[in-house]
Specification:
636 residues, alpha+beta, OB fold (Dihydrolipoamide Acetyltransferase, E2P), Rossmann fold, 3 domains, 5-stranded parallel β-sheet, 18 helices, 20% strand, disordered C terminus
């Protein structure tokens, strides 16, 4: 079927053309969806469309096709709309049937009226989800997308990393690969994902909290001023899990999609018809705003009628069909990343190897209450001297497609929403910092914790982190009850002593602190665009690869473990067998293998023997264990 060249800028013309010839099709709506799908099959065509992740909202026109990459942050009740409606010409008295698909505001001329009770009107429903820029997306991901789409580098949900600086000349190209690791000034910058702000006084001299809202405006959080509370209550914001002045949000309207096709926290890449009509802000009858309280106007949060949508399994634009490393390339890249992580951990090669396995870990299944594949790693005996923790996080942020640094201070625990909370008055899910998409690497820094007593809210937040680690689940607060949502967020806990939180593997880091400046200069000198991109592909390829445990190897492993149990029943438990098998899977995947071999199992036993010998923490005295987690903090 010939298609006009204006289908990108005036997609409603294509819809109307098919609708007018609907008698030729068994189902005209399916024909419309198929037409858009066929037109968007080519990746070049998809990438040629303007992206709301990169462009300001005012640079796109109402009714054109746009793209958006984001995470489903909230889901609303389905919306009833007129798929077909009758209009009457007041001058001639004639009537006609129009198409209402992909529209928020029904179209009629100056001398025309919509017949509300027409027998020709067809009511249907469409799904509605609230999408935000992918939380924790690494700046290099934005840069890759920006280069690929031939657009100016934009937010895509990620503020510019304040811990980065340009590399030395000749070591890497462009600021996309820059980082600050050998100067103290840049590494001392404010941590990228910390919520909250500095204390300040309002016009009445009352101390409040100053922070930037998601739309970039300065907000004063005042605990003693009712008027300030009322202003905050009605203030429009983008409801981002990780506050970001350059983040974006859209309301997506879905057609012909199964109820369970999308879930909260799914990542999506979609194309749709953008709706920016100012009349949307004033609609009060049968509108989304009636269901969902006061939502931001379309100029701030555009409405997108999705014509084609793809779920994103991972957020690495360098990995895709035809883009993978060979076995030899993986072996070489593995050596290089272990060297870099060893340098970042100040010479501790064992800790670096465990950190590599943590970075490629993934929840691949659940059996009863057991989570298969997760590997929470607690590296202890570390400190924040010379901003070591933030420098380490900077390195990790350059390698993984998504990460979040969570400073676990008492102030953070007592003042921040970690878990999403349902606001029934506004009918929206208020985001929490732990509402993250799958594969986001969460780095929890306990070195900033100080002595003192946590509030009830702080204990709840700490418990939420513990449950995320132990069960890879998060209980969303719906006021009268909680709903449990499964997650896949690898958690790295950095602590000076034994962690307050549970973990799958604890390992004492033995650093040579005098080498900090030298080691990070070494990292800075060897990183270049080619190496970084190979490491990025390597980590995702390992994480997403298939894996199997051959029956013969499984039998040998079981027999070997029985022998170990006989030698030392107290040292080897069924839980130890599970952790050994998790580690064995990661050891094999890190070498580009898809199944476990005998040499991999022997390596696991060697690694665990070394770790257990003198790298595990002593039990914590006087610690309470509600929910299986230590939460006691000595009071002053």
């Amino acid at each position: 079927m010939p298609v006009a060249d204006d289908w990108k800028t005036c997609p409603h013309n294509l819809v109307s053309k098919i609708y007018k010839a609907k008698h030729e099709y068994a189902n005209w709506e399916v024909t419309v969806s198929s037409a858009f799908k066929d037109l968007l099959t080519c990746e070049t065509t998809w990438n040629s469309l303007p992206s709301l992740n990169h462009l300001p909202n005012h640079e796109v026109a109402d009714g054109q096709l746009v793209r958006f990459r984001g995470m489903v942050q909230d889901m609303f009740d389905p919306e009833i709309y007129l798929s077909e409606y009758e209009i009457r010409n007041l001058a001639s008295g004639t009537s006609s049937i129009q198409c209402g698909r992909y529209r928020d505001v029904l179209q009629n001329g100056m001398r025309e009226e919509i017949i509300q009770e027409s027998d020709f009107n067809v009511m249907k429903d469409r799904g509605i989800v609230y999408c935000v820029s992918i939380p924790g997306e690494s700046p290099w991901v934005t840069d890759v997308h920006s280069t690929r789409y031939n657009e100016k580098a934009g937010p895509s949900g990620t503020a510019q990393n304040p811990l980065k600086r340009g590399l030395e000349p000749g070591t890497a190209t462009a600021t996309e690969e820059s980082m600050d690791m050998d100067t103290e000034s840049g590494a001392a910058a404010t941590d990228v994902a910390q919520a909250g702000g500095n204390d300040m006084e309002d016009d009445n001299g009352v101390v409040g909290k100053r922070s930037k809202g998601e739309d970039g405006s300065v907000v004063i959080k005042n605990g003693n001023n009712p008027a300030a509370h009322e202003n905050m209550k009605h203030r429009h914001d983008l409801n981002l899990p990780i506050p970001n002045a350059r983040g974006k949000a859209v309301i997506v309207k879905l057609y012909d999609i199964k109820d369970d096709a999308l879930k909260l926290n799914d990542m999506v890449d979609l194309v749709g018809i953008v709706s920016l009509d100012p009349a949307l802000a004033a609609q009060q009858i049968d509108s989304l705003e009636d269901q969902s309280g006061t939502l931001p106007p379309p100029s701030l949060v555009p409405r997108i009628h999705a014509v084609h949508l793809k779920k994103v399994e991972h957020n690495n634009p360098l990995v895709g069909p035809g883009r993978h490393l060979t076995r030899d390339e993986m072996a070489r890249t593995r050596e290089q990343i272990i060297y870099i992580l060893t340098q970042a951990l100040l010479g501790d090669a064992l800790a670096a190897e465990y950190l590599l396995y943590h970075l490629i870990s993934k929840v691949y299944g659940r059996r009863d209450i057991q989570v298969l594949g997760k590997m929470c790693l607690n590296l202890f005996n570390v400190n924040s001297t010379n901003n070591w923790m933030k420098r380490l996080y900077t390195v990790l942020g350059l390698l993984v497609p998504g990460s979040h640094y969570l400073a676990l201070s008492r102030q953070q625990l007592d003042s921040t929403n970690f878990v999403p909370v349902k606001d029934f008055e506004a009918n929206r899910l208020v985001a929490g910092v732990l509402q993250l998409p799958a594969s986001t690497n969460l780095v929890v820094d306990e070195t900033v914790m100080s002595d003192g007593q946590l509030s009830a809210r702080g204990v709840q937040n700490l418990t939420a982190v513990g449950n995320l680690i132990r069960w890879q689940k998060l209980d969303y607060d719906f006021k009268y009850h909680s709903l449990e949502y499964e997650t896949d967020v690898p958690v790295l806990v950095l602590s000076e002593g034994r962690s307050l939180l549970p973990s799958d593997f604890q390992l004492k880091v033995i650093p040579e602190e005098s080498l900090l400046e030298t080691n990070y200069r070494n990292i800075n000198s060897i990183l270049n665009k080619d190496l970084l991109n190979r490491i990025r592909v390597y980590l995702t390829q390992c994480r997403e690869s298939d894996y199997s445990l051959p029956e013969a190897v499984q039998t040998a492993v079981t027999d070997d473990f029985v022998q170990l149990r006989q030698n030392d029943p107290n040292q080897f438990t069924p839980e130890d067998l599970h952790s050994h098998l998790v580690l064995a899977r990661l050891v094999a995947l890190s070498q580009g293998k898809t199944s476990l071999e005998a040499e991999d199992w022997n390596k696991v036993k060697e690694l665990e023997a070394n770790r257990r010998a003198n790298r595990t923490p002593q039990p914590r005295a006087h610690a309470s264990l509600p929910n299986g987690m230590q939460i006691h903090i000595p009071a002053n």
